[in-house]
Structures are given as structure tokens and as C-alpha cells.
Amino acid sequence: RRFFSFPSFLETGINVTVNATFIYSDSVIYKSNDCRSSTCEGLDLLREISKNKRMGCVLMGPSCTYSTFQMYLDTDLTYPMISAGSFGLSCDYKETLTRLMSPARKLLYFLVNFWKANHLPFKDFSWNTAYVFKNGTETEDCFWYLNALEAGVSYFSQELSFKEILRGNDQFQDILTNQNRKSNVIVMCGSPDIIGNLKGDRAVAEDIVIILVDLFNNHYFTENVTAPDYMKNVLVLTLPPGNFTSISSFSRGLSQAKNNFALAYLNGILLFGHVLKTYLENGEAITTPKFAQAFRNLTFEGHAGPVTLDDCGDIDNTMVLLYTSVETNKYRVLLSYDTHKNKTTPVANNPMFIWMNHKLPNDL
Fold it and tell me: Per the confidence metrics, is the pTM higher than 0.85?
């Protein structure tokens, strides 16, 4: 149990202290770190909280798509839920859910926008095909991003004329040089290590383009980082460091993945304070459906700067697509993508990348 006092409240003459209860489960199922197996446990906890009348005015979590979806399916959620995670398409368009890490829906919109683009300084062709690589060892975010790319009903799948899933290392490695391949573009998710382990020093056809989704990794912007040779055929989709600046007071000893989730929940607390302050200033009740649906279509001051939520309660931000300069072996920004405006903006006019004439190849 913790108590939070929001300084900005005092500036407006509002004296309020928020009581936060942290519920931790030490069951064998939860300790397995298996998101699927935590689903029933999460529902049981939620029912227990409701039964004992311990539910407050906002729920922080869960982060697991399975749990969040099941909670909305099996319970009547009339209070706001703020999640770091819940990336999957099944958690889209939930009236009281706010997601503070980029959900799969945002990734799909970028990919379709980029595939269709044919008037960029470095891309003259619309793409209509893709391979998607999955090997079953992905992190939580990658699992749901690739799951969305695989789904036949997803926006990405519907907009492509050809899409095939590569499920094993051998299939991936074969496509790199297979003259009978049906697409030159491969989408995958993870860190550069996965590229190195799969590709290594193998030969790659000159028209192959690998899109690596690695949103929550500041490695590419670290000073003096040099891209390995196996990254020259790779474009990296990521978020600039300002989207996940670390907090030294509690980030020491945490993995980058855990730190990103922790930072998102800190922003969740700041979001709750922002909405609560607005309602208290206006003399409005906070235990109403209106309050539960208020955590969307707004901008608030997060830990690292302003955070914008769209009309579905999902975070908006600016993603960047990086390439490896063949001159310097450094990562450089190729373009930026505003998820709020669904707009791609070229940054490099004559990128010094591995493909000929400063242009990306066609996908066929």
C-alpha cells in the first residue's frame, strides 16, 4: 500500500492524497512468467477485489494481452484500466482501456503506409508482398506484433497480394538467396542479435530488404555504436530515446524490457493524476462511466515530456526507420512516421545504404 500526493494539485488549491494498493501474487503459475497461464489467475484476483469491495477508481495493469482480453470478455469493467502492454489486436477499441506502449495496431498502420509509398526520395515502388519470420522465441511485444502480421484479417494482411510466414531458421536462410522467392521483403521482430544469429556472413541477394521491428531499444542511438556488417541489408523500426528515457532512481539492475514497462506505468500514474485533477477542478464525480472513458484523446505531461493518446486510448508517438550507412557503419534515420497523423516523412534524400542508386528495390 502506497500513498501519492500530486504537487500540481496543491498549486490549484486541491488537497488530495491517493491511496494505491499493490497486489502481488506468488503462486506457482505466476512465477512461471507464462502470460497465458496468468489469465485465470488475473481473473480470480479481479473477482476477489470486486467481491471484497477493494476496487478503487482505476486499475493499473495487467500487461498481458491474454489477461486483458479475458477481463473484458468475462467481467463488466466500468472503471479505467491503464496498461503497459496488452499489445494484441484483441485488445483494440476497448472503451475503458488505455495502452501506454505502442500496440500492434500502430505497427500495422506504419507498415501499410510504408509499403504503399512510392514517391519517397529512396522508394519509387509500392510494395504488395512480404515474408514474416517467426520462430517462437519472441519477447512479449514481438509475439503480439508478429501475431498481428500473421492474422489473415489484419489490416496488413488485407492490403497485401502475397504474404507468407517463415517459421524456421532454415526457411529464413533459404529465402536470402532463393531465386524463386515471391517477395524481396522480410519482416521480423527482435534485436540485431537475432539477425546475426540467423544471417551471419551468409550471402544475401542484392534486392533483399529486412525490416526489423525493435521499438523499445535505445541501442541504435548510443554514442559510438557501430552497426555490424550483417545489418547492412536491414532497416530498423524503432522509437527515439525520448520515448523511453530511463529513470536512474529505480532503473538500476532492471533489464531494458522491464525498465520500459516500469516507465510506462509511471506515465500511467501521471496520466491518472492529470485526469483526476481535471475532474476534481470541475467538481465532477470520478466513479462514473464518463470518468472511466476519459483516458483518451488527450495530451498529458509524462516523465520524459508530453504524451498523446488517440481517441481509442492508445499512445501516439513518432517512430523512425533506420538504415546502416555503408560509409560510416553508423545507424542513420531514413524516415519518421507520426502515428497520430499516419504520416511518413523522409529524412534522408540520398541515403548511403547498400541498395543501388540510393533507392530501395522493388518487392518482386
Answer: yes
The 10s digit of each residue's pLDDT in 135-166 is 888 888 999 999 999 999 999 999 999 999 99
Amino acid at 304: A
Q: Give CA–CA dist 287/79, Å, rounded.
A: 7
How many angstroms separate the Cα of 9 from the Cα of each of 6, 137, 163?
6, 45, 52
Instruction: List beta partners, residue 59.
Output: 81
Distance (Å) of CA 220 to CA 215, 226, 236, 337, 352: 11, 9, 9, 17, 17
Phi-psi region at 85: left, alpha or beta (left = phi > 0; alpha = psi -120 to 50): left
Question: Contact 113/93 with Cβ under 8 angstroms?
Answer: no
> CB within 8 A of 118, min separation 6: which ones?
124, 125, 126
Distance between CA atoms of 214 and 86, rounded to whole angstroms?
A: 17
Please give the full DSSP string across 32-79, using - where no structure is assigned. Answer: TT-TTTHHHHHHHHHHHHHHTT---S-EE----HHHHHHHHHHS---S
Strands 81-83 and 59-60, bridge-based pairing? parallel
Right CATH for 3-101+243-314 from 3.30.43.10, 3.40.30.10, 3.40.50.720, 3.40.50.2300: 3.40.50.2300
In the DSSP assignment, the letter for residue 260 is H
Place of cell 524516415: 335
What is the rounded distance in angstroms from the CA atom of residue 6 to the CA atom of residue 340? Answer: 29
Kind of pairing between the strands at 234-238 and 298-302: unpaired
Strands 17-20 and 59-60: unpaired
d(CA 316, CA 229): 33
Superfamily of 104-239+317-358 according to CATH:
Response regulator (3.40.50.2300)
Specify the residue for cell string 507498415: 111
CATH 3.40.50.2300 domain locations along the chain = 3-101+243-314, 104-239+317-358
The predicted structure's pLDDT at residue 28:
41
Tell how far CA 352 is from the center of its chain.
Answer: 28
Relative to beta strand 2-5, strand 17-20 is antiparallel
Read off the pLDDT of residues 84-120 as tens digits, 9 standing for 90 and up.
999 999 999 999 999 999 999 999 999 999 999 999 9
